[in-house]
Amino acid sequence: MITIVHSSDWHLGRSFHNVSLLDDQAIWLEQILQQVIEQQADALIIAGDLYDRSVPPAAAVALFDQFIERFRCQSQAKLIVISGNHDSATRLGFAANQLKHKGIHFITSFDDMLEPIIVSNASGEQAFVYGIPYCEPLQVRHHYQCHVSHHAQAHQFLVEQIKATLDESQSNVLVSHCFVDGASGCDSERPLSIGGSDAVAWEPMQNFTYVALGHLHGAQYRGAKHIRYSGSPMAYSFSEQHHKKGCCLVLIDNEGLANVEQLPLQPKRRMRVVEGRMAELIEQAKEDPNADDYLMVRLTDTHAIMDAMNKLRSVYPNILHLEKPGMLGQIPNRPQANDQIKQSELSMFADFYQQSLGRELTHEQRSLLTELLTDLHKQDV
Amino acid sequence: MITIVHSSDWHLGRSFHNVSLLDDQAIWLEQILQQVIEQQADALIIAGDLYDRSVPPAAAVALFDQFIERFRCQSQAKLIVISGNHDSATRLGFAANQLKHKGIHFITSFDDMLEPIIVSNASGEQAFVYGIPYCEPLQVRHHYQCHVSHHAQAHQFLVEQIKATLDESQSNVLVSHCFVDGASGCDSERPLSIGGSDAVAWEPMQNFTYVALGHLHGAQYRGAKHIRYSGSPMAYSFSEQHHKKGCCLVLIDNEGLANVEQLPLQPKRRMRVVEGRMAELIEQAKEDPNADDYLMVRLTDTHAIMDAMNKLRSVYPNILHLEKPGMLGQIPNRPQANDQIKQSELSMFADFYQQSLGRELTHEQRSLLTELLTDLHKQDV
Prior knowledge:
The structure is a homodimer. In chain A, α1 packs parallel to α2 (about 60-75) and α6 packs across α7 (about 150-165). By secondary structure, chain A is an alpha/beta fold. Chain A has helices spanning about 20-40, 60-75, 90, 95-100, 110-115, 135-145, 150-165, 280-285, 310-315, 340, 345-355, 365-380, and strands at about 1-5, 15, 20, 45, 80, 105, 115-120, 125-130, 170-175, 180, 200, 210-215, 220, 225-230, 245-250, 260-265, 270-275, 295-300, 320-325. The first copy, chain A, folds into three domains: about 1-265, Purple Acid Phosphatase, chain A, domain 2, CATH 3.60.21.10; about 270-325; about 340-380, no CATH class. Chain A has a six-stranded mixed β-sheet. Chain A is elongated. Chains A and B meet through α2 and α4 of A and α2 and α4 of B.
């Protein structure tokens, strides 16, 4: 049995609403390390977006450096990382050829892609891990002098390159950072393609024993249960408040079948949306054992409240964002007809009022406004 | 005999007058590698400023990555690098603990400083290499909770820390990136201290077998012949046109004495200053086998020349900077006395003319100016 822990989208060094998440990241890094040790994993795979940007903050580099250090001291597992769309392949790949002798593998170039990393255990069982570094279709076209114009073609081309070299009688694991057609995204992923389609097909990957995917932050499989996104280890947006974050424990048996289980991670603080009136929320916070979660608060009061953010912060210290749907109606945007421009001031104002507050003008408000407008028109003359 | 090649101030990724020097850097990187191989060196020391800035361009990271790769394949020598004032210690130190198992040592923290790197040869001879990562006095004060307020104190304090741990019966090599008092700088070094003194004393270091210094770009020793700057491997400013660039070959014999020899490096293009009249220079270029050197041209013609830069570039393709001392006198700056402010317009202008062109006003110019000023004064009334 080959045991692999599959994770992705660590985004080390990420901030959210100007708050650094490094402390939170240190917590689940430790949990992942403990899982690798407890499960006696033979490999830990990180399927891209190790860092949040091509030049990560020095503190994020230091955090990962500490992780590598402890990982290497406390575990025999191989560490296999591919570059994602947020990473700089060149920077991530520095000294990769030296580090692989220590069982630390960065797959960041097309050359790395065709050379499998052999993961083995004490009984001599093996799995061959192939990783596709994230790349643009243009890079594939350029490097292989082939005619691929979008992500689906480029990805399939690369998968075929790997398939042409591998031994199908072995357990083969593919690692890729991509958007598989039909999968569910969330607010914290950066689209891989602006204007074009970034979706790739799952079918070309189906003959691998297991496919460890990265890019999407919600755990899910696509096409078949062995073609799987581990999801990010923590929520990076409020749209992920109901995600169950964790990593995948992949057990590959003697018959080359992958059994997958989700290993949960416990965040230091959750990311949640809380909704209600100010008075209720303040009251509620007193009983809330997780009042230090990262919060988006949606305030439903319909009257103005002075200094609402600071009032809420005194009970919810990590409130990150405040919305006031009670004050400003969340009416879906409607295309503005040219006709509206021709409307009278009164009807235009009535419309504006309705769009902003979600209510019609009352009869009294309408009379007052008519008077006011008449007065103004008199002054014009 | 322990054989060490000492270099420093590589500044990989540096540009000069907006021209990237990466191609030039690749040339002498190869020459240094060949020297290490030919001399069968036991270690290559880089005494700081490996990169030109804390976040080096990705191409510079890739260039050094290739160097490490070839160095590790073709030589048994240890590679020892300390961080300089241009480097980011955190970024340079990434994965350092893993890389040292491959004989690649990055010394970037106070902890690294006290753990010598043992350089040995086939006959079992040894030298102990201690490196001081570049640091500000404030960092030393903070880390050791000691009272040091400037570079000299901080550096001496760190040297004492090392001396307290070492075995004096061995050959001990110190690596440091600092400005030793009285040494000669040039235009391409960034001062270590603005406003304060950045100078440190050589005396505390004199009991080491050899001291491999970095920071100054001109090769020189200070205090004693074994306390030495290798200088940068290439000129990074025109002020270095007469430097002989190279690295130091250090041979430490059985009696613990260091013998030093300069190994020259041949630049792809030299950095030179060329002076003369346009017509002479153009003529001269035809006979110049090194017309593609990086040039600063000082044009001595006293009349205006249209498009001088492009005319020169057609014969000197890598001209980087043009000065026209013939057109605008290069008179040394003089402190402006308050008295001058009280001078008449005529004498002020005469002075300005003299400072700018290096010539006195002629009698005719002076008459014309007097007329003009009289006219202007009439209009004032």
